[in-house]
Design brief:
There is one protein chain. Strand 4, helix 4 and strand 5 form a beta-alpha-beta unit. It is built from 7 helices and 10 strands. It is globular. Strands 5-4-3-2-1-8 form a 6-stranded parallel sheet, covered by helices on one side. Strands 6-7 form a two-stranded parallel ribbon. Helix 1 runs parallel beside helix 2, helix 2 packs parallel to helix 3 and helix 3 packs across helix 4. It starts with 9 loop residues before the first strand and ends with a helix. Helix content is about 30%, strand content about 15%. With about 250 residues, the chain is an alpha/beta fold.
């Protein structure tokens, strides 16, 4: 076993960088590489191989907006369910269609695929370009399908900081009160991509660092990009277990 990955317990898939939002806080910037999406069968096969060797606790799909390519999410989550991976997580902004029938269909399919942790990104940043009524429609359909769902806001500087973005975020979260959807602790915006471009004035001192950067000598999470890149290799070109075996600093 590669000792750098001896504690591996999570697999995540960036399904696509394409997105329905244009958020000021987005660490990916302007989403210029938005034409690609992950190959669902290669992704599912790679997950099966990893899970055969490691005790995987979580599989996550996100983006961009992953539900723009819902079929890829379904394939990944079906495989994760078959493998009995405990946490099967989707992070979405909830805006992939305005069609009510399509929204209901996606929620039903996510439930059938075994998704058991749905994080809905709602806050001042997302709602500058994403219609809240459509997001609430998706949230209602997900609840009706008994998918465990939480609101996952992005906070500027901290969840307690008093700034215009956080005040607006609290208003948006309050508007969900009648739906009785719990609010997660969310994320703290860090200065990369659009956040560095549009929110620089808020990062003049003691700004938060990217919390998702791991120690490359102790990898807990393997992350696949839409183009197949992973751990310095590419799963479209080489077997994932060979990539893991050869991974080095």
């Amino acid at each position: 076993m590669n000792q750098c990955l001896k504690n591996l317990n999570k697999i995540e898939f960036v399904v696509t960088y394409a997105c329905t939002g244009r958020c000021k806080h987005c660490s990916e910037g302007d989403h210029t590489s938005c034409g690609e999406r992950i190959d669902p069968q290669i992704a599912a096969d790679a997950m099966r191989k990893i899970a055969a060797e490691y005790d995987i606790k979580t599989v996550m799909t996100f983006g961009g907006e992953p539900l723009l390519y819902a079929d890829a999410v379904y394939a990944i989550m079906i495989a994760a369910t078959e493998l009995n991976i405990p946490k099967r997580q989707v992070i979405t902004n909830g805006y992939f269609s305005k069609n009510g029938d399509k929204i209901r269909e996606v929620a039903e399919r996510l439930a059938a695929c075994g998704v058991n942790n749905l994080l809905l990104s709602v806050d001042a940043f997302h709602q500058e370009t994403i219609p809240l009524d459509v997001v609430k429609r998706f949230a209602a359909e997900a609840k009706a399908c008994d998918i465990p769902i939480r609101l996952q806001p992005a906070w500027l500087r901290s969840a307690t900081d008093d700034n215009p973005y956080n005040r607006k975020t609290r208003e948006i979260l309050d508007s969900f009160a009648d739906m009785e959807i719990p609010v997660g602790e969310g994320n703290i915006v860090f200065p990369e991509g659009n956040a560095l471009k549009y929110l620089a004035e808020y990062f003049t001192d003691n700004h938060p660092e990217n919390p998702y950067v791991e120690d490359p000598r102790d990898v807990h999470c393997v992350s696949f990009e839409p183009n197949g890149n992973v751990l310095g290799g590419n799963v479209y070109e080489r077997d994932i277990m060979e990539i893991i075996k050869d991974y080095a600093l």
